[in-house]
Amino acid sequence: MLDRRVLLTGTAALAALGVQHWFGKEAAMADTTTAEVTKTEAEWRKILSPAQFDVLRKHGTEYPGTSPLNKEKRKGTFACAGCELPLFSSDTKFESGTGWPSFWQPLPNAVGTTVDKSLLMTRTEVHCRRCHGHLGHVFEDGPKPTGLRYCMNGVAMKFAPSAPGAA
Fold this sequence. Notes:
The protein contains three helices and nine strands. The protein has one domain (4-161): Peptide methionine sulfoxide reductase (Metal Binding Protein, Guanine Nucleotide Exchange Factor, Chain A, Beta Complex). It has helices spanning 4-16, 41-47, 50-58, and strands at 76-80, 86-89, 93-94, 102-103, 111-116, 123-128, 134-139, 149-152, 157-161. The chain is globular. The strands form two sheets. It has a six-stranded antiparallel sheet with strand order 3-4-8-7-6-5. A three-stranded antiparallel sheet has the order 2-1-9, with no helix packed on it. Helices cover 17% and strands 24% of the residues. The model is unreliable at 14-32 (pLDDT under 50). By secondary structure, the protein is an alpha+beta fold.
């Protein structure tokens, strides 16, 4: 049976193959003129891996199931790989079965959203509030208490484990 999650996972896999470029990926890009952290394309390429640059700056999508952060179970914080702004607490991470790290809530004042009309559908894109790096999308099929699923590209984030003994 084809359900929404299977359809979205398949769509995201196509996006990872670069199909989104043909269907309006560039139109979905966030306005970076108001970002707190701004860099030239050359500066971003210098500090990001090619995969990070593709996702954060060009709105790419990593292949499902490829990020080690999807299996990360330790206590800690997930931060933007571009500007290191803390984005998500491990306390809000859950296994969504999609192949990408998923969270039911971001940290306060960490992310922004824009309308993404690529791939012939309308979705809500999630980006870093500080550098406007593309992180992923948010869907309304997550667990309580929010009912949201922030489906993030692991390559767009870094994980910092909590200090031993930290609450």
